[in-house]
Design goal:
Helix content is about 65%, strand content about 0%. By secondary structure, the protein is mostly helical. The protein has a two-stranded antiparallel ribbon with strand order 1-2. A hairpin with a 2-residue loop joins β1 and β2.
Length: about 850
């Protein structure tokens, strides 16, 4: 990389490129000197690279803005071209709904205004455009309030610029900033306030979840901007290097930016209804998502030195780094620990990363990315960050009973993976008290599931060794045993053992699949019945494939037809899945993998998996184990992925068809032109070109036409597959929600007037549900001289969990109802009419309907 590129990229960093210089002014002068020397013969490259740096390292935008201001003093044409490029990119980002592009380019324009590059009136004009569009969108008569997420985004963009340019605006055009503040306040007074309870990290308790229950994100940002205004627009976290060059920059020419226009939003539904409005509102929320849902893990004292606006700016810095370095974990960690601020921010950094990891309905990037970043940050700041992460884990563990089920699952997966990178070291003795809690207590289940996941990532003895300091926690480890092969066991049917031996010999002898099927049809099935046949086939073949994942996949690929022959319909597939679960009852991971692979090979259907998950044996585990939920998540996810993949393939084929049609049209035109030419043959005029070329053109035209026909056939076939997949998806969600509704109707406490999960959680302990071995709450409290009202989440050093087993079962199941509804909302909304008619009826349990509506972010009053 050339020196000017290095200097641009590393400006503001402590790197060899800048020697011992640490002052921003020195960096800018050094970089400007290198750019000025290269500007005449590398203008295009510098323009592109400079803009790319500003867009992808937005925490350095004040430095790049000042640099552009210095360039403007010597080469106005270059800066004019740069602004034209920014204008094009900005309008394109607006039109395409690129929220990050719009937000970052607005920050860059604000800084360019501070550096006297951009006319102040141009920036104010963009603010006015956004304000006008936002006000129109939420207007009941002129706009479409369903698209309020778009309007909120415009207002957020305006407010987010003020930490970078508010001081200059107040100094130069105080009347404009006053008008702006009044306009924003007017907008906030007419917008609808959405509580978004379906996206809360914790089940809303007393409405006092810090930052989320009191105000939404736009209101919160507005409050911070008001505090900034009262504080004289001073922001510690935003460097202002242009002030060091103010005497020079004031001599530069400020350029106009040109007008921009906000894209039109869709019209309201022609026939307004709760369903049609809900669909369009969901579409708007997908296109203009809220960037962060703030997760407050630590007490305010850990970040109380920060001004409210500094917290917002730091979150912006951290989220930008996570966004632009999502493929480079080490660079990401390096930039995160070297942000240009004069204070420490480890606690805020941890809260921001965890807020992204646990964000609902889904994190911006795959959870593994955040896992790797946290690992690298622990290594980069070994004296500070590991302790902060440990504190976050402890704080979340204390509130685990109230944590959303999807967040809880992600936390388990992250924590187990994190520990596997640090020799599984954790002070488990702190949590040894969970053994005194009922088996359904969320803290106990959390520890149990973390240990189970650790065993997957290592081996049983290693994990057992890691919990040696916590006496008794070994009890929560998964069983050590392997396959549960009952054929040939003591007291087992000798006939089954003999049949298994025959099948084993056939497999070892590499008998063809059709021979094995014939043997089953002629010898096994007629004489022993389906149940014995199924047990022999499943246990024998799975036992052959039990050595490793590869062995299992090989068995399923080679002998899938045998399973398909024995279990051709849904009822028999349920029996097949049950037999698989029994064989791998001591290994949750292998159970999930085997069933998932069977679904992949279409040996079992997703409906059969749902029926098995909601069998009595699995229902009893809903609140004490992740085993049935993992299988269900895999089935729903695989169904969704099939549809998603088909849509991508159809989109690609559509482009290919258009390209092929264009090529065929061109080939036909060339052939027609050649055939229309007059040529001389033996002195006589003949219609047509040289016969050899003509034949070649005819062949090319025919091939091009065949290519179009072939692609169109593939396109139609994929569309047919998509229609079938969507029908399967509809059937899946109908069965899933019917199953949820039925089991909840049976098990919700009779006579309970609970309307929310918190009310249900507060229900008195069902004495009959408590294990006889467990002491009662009152006895434990009296023994330890504690008041009867112990913490409901099994607080530290408490031996009580004040929620009965039935109530906990309902709370867990309703939590998963909400989680599935939220995660697959985009696939559920197209089928909502049928769900409303067949499942979400007046007869359905109110708590069940509330959970579905909350997950879909549908007004609860419709439930």
């Amino acid at each position: 990389m050339s020196s000017w590129r290095n200097l641009l990229l590393r400006i503001g960093d402590k790197t060899p490129e800048y020697g011992a210089a640490t002052d921003f002014k020195d960096h800018i002068e050094t970089c400007f000197g290198a750019i000025r020397r290269e500007l005449d013969h590398s203008q295009t490259e510098i323009l592109e690279f400079l803009l790319a740096c500003a867009e992808q390292l937005p925490h350095k935008i004040p430095l790049y803005g000042t640099l552009i201001g210095l360039i403007n003093l010597e080469n106005e044409d270059f800066v004019k071209k740069l602004l034209d490029k920014i204008h094009t990119k900005f309008q394109d980002a607006l039109n395409s709904g690129d929220c990050n592009g719009v937000r970052i380019l607005m920050r860059l324009m604000t800084v360019l205004m501070c550096s006297k590059v951009l006319q102040l009136s141009s920036l104010v004009g963009i603010f006015d455009t956004f304000l006008s569009s936002a006000a129109t969108i939420v207007d009941e008569e002129k706009g479409n309030p369903l698209w309020q997420p778009c309007a909120d985004f415009y207002i957020t963009c305006i407010l987010s610029c003020l930490p970078w340019g508010g001081a200059e605006l107040v100094e130069q055009v105080p009347e404009e900033i006053d008008r702006l503040m009044v306009s924003v306040e007017a907008y906030l007074s007419i917008r609808r306030r959405d509580s978004d309870t379906g996206l809360f990290f914790f089940e809303k308790d007393d409405g006092n979840e810090r930052g989320s229950g009191d105000k939404d994100f736009v209101e919160d940002l507005w409050e911070r901007i008001q505090a900034l205004s009262s504080n004289g627009w001073k922001v510690e976290s935003v460097p202002r290097p242009h002030l060091s060059f103010e005497a020079q920059l004031v001599a530069g020419k400020s350029h106009e930016f040109g007008t921009v226009s906000c894209p039109n939003i869709p019209s309201p539904p022609s026939v307004p209804s709760g369903i049609s409005n809900g669909k369009q509102k969901h579409e708007a929320e997908l296109k203009y998502p809220q960037r962060i849902h703030r997760l407050n893990i630590f007490p305010p004292s850990k970040t109380e030195d920060l001004q409210p606006i500094d917290r917002y700016v730091m979150e912006e810095y951290l989220l930008d780094v996570l966004l632009f370095f999502n493929g480079c974990r080490k660079e990401c960690a390096s930039f995160m620990v070297g942000l240009p601020v004069p204070f420490r921010y480890e606690y805020l950094m941890a809260e921001t990363i965890f807020s992204q990891l646990l964000m609902l309905p889904q994190p911006p990037f795959k959870p593994i990315y955040y896992t790797l970043v946290i690992i690298d940050l622990c290594k980069a700041l070994p004296g500070a960050f590991p302790a902060v992460v440990a504190g976050a884990v402890r704080a979340l563990f204390e509130k685990i009973a109230d944590l959303d089920m999807e967040c809880r699952t992600r936390l388990i997966l992250w924590f187990s993976h994190h520990l596997s990178n640090f020799q599984f070291i954790w002070p488990w003795e702190e949590w040894a008290y969970v053994l005194d809690l009922p088996k359904w207590a969320p803290q106990r289940v959390f520890v149990q599931e973390v240990l189970e996941r650790e065993v997957r990532l290592s081996y049983w003895d290693k994990v057992k060794q890691s919990v040696e300091n916590a006496a008794g926690l070994e009890e929560l480890l998964p069983p050590k045993g392997g396959p549960n092969l009952t054929l040939g066991a003591d007291g087992a049917d000798n006939n089954e053992h003999a049949l298994s031996g025959e099948l084993n010999n056939l497999v070892k002898g590499k008998a063809p699949v059709r021979e094995i099927i014939s043997w089953i049809d002629e010898t096994v099935l007629p004489n022993n019945g389906l149940e014995v046949t199924l047990r022999v086939v499943v246990q024998t073949l799975l036992n052959i494939g039990s050595k490793s994942f590869t062995h299992l996949i090989t068995v399923l690929e080679r002998y899938g037809q045998v399973f398909a022959k024995v279990c051709p319909d849904q009822d028999k597939q349920v029996m097949l899945i049950a037999e698989v679960g029994l064989f791998w009852k001591s290994n949750t991971q292998m159970t999930a993998i085997a069933i998932d692979r069977m679904m992949g090979y279409r040996l079992v259907s997703n409906l059969a998996i749902v029926r098995w998950v909601f069998s009595l044996e699995n229902i009893e585990q809903f609140h004490t184990s992740d085993r049935p939920w993992e299988v269900l998540r895999n089935a729903v996810s695989k169904t969704y992925n099939r549809i998603s993949d088909l849509r991508k393939e159809i989109l690609s084929l559509k482009r290919n068809v258009l390209s092929a049609e264009e090529a065929a049209k061109q080939a036909k035109e060339e052939l027609d032109a050649a055939e229309s030419k007059l040529t001389l043959v033996d002195g006589e005029p003949v219609l047509g070109e040289n016969p050899a070329r003509l034949n070649r053109l005819k062949s090319q035209a025919a091939k091009a036409k065949e290519e179009v026909v072939s692609l169109q056939e593939s396109f139609e076939a994929k569309e047919a597959l998509l229609v079938r997949a969507i029908e399967e998806n509809e059937a899946l969600f109908l069965m899933l929600y019917k199953s949820f509704s039925n089991v909840l109707a049976e098990r919700l406490p009779e006579g309970s007037n609970a309307r929310t999960l918190h009310e249900l959680k507060s229900t008195e302990v069902d004495v009959m549900a408590v294990d006889p071995q467990e002491p009662s709450t009152m006895e434990v409290d009296n023994e330890n001289q504690k008041p009867p009202n112990s913490q409901s989440n099994g607080g530290k050093k408490s031996n009580a969990y004040n929620v009965g087993e039935k109530e906990q079962w309902c709370i867990t199941t309703l939590g998963y109802v909400k989680a599935f509804s939220r995660q697959y909302a985009a696939e559920i909304w197209p089928h909502i009419e049928k769900l409303d008619a067949e499942v979400l009826t007046e007869e359905a349990p109110p708590l069940f309907r509330s959970a579905v509506y909350s997950g879909l972010r549908r007004p609860i009053n419709e439930a």
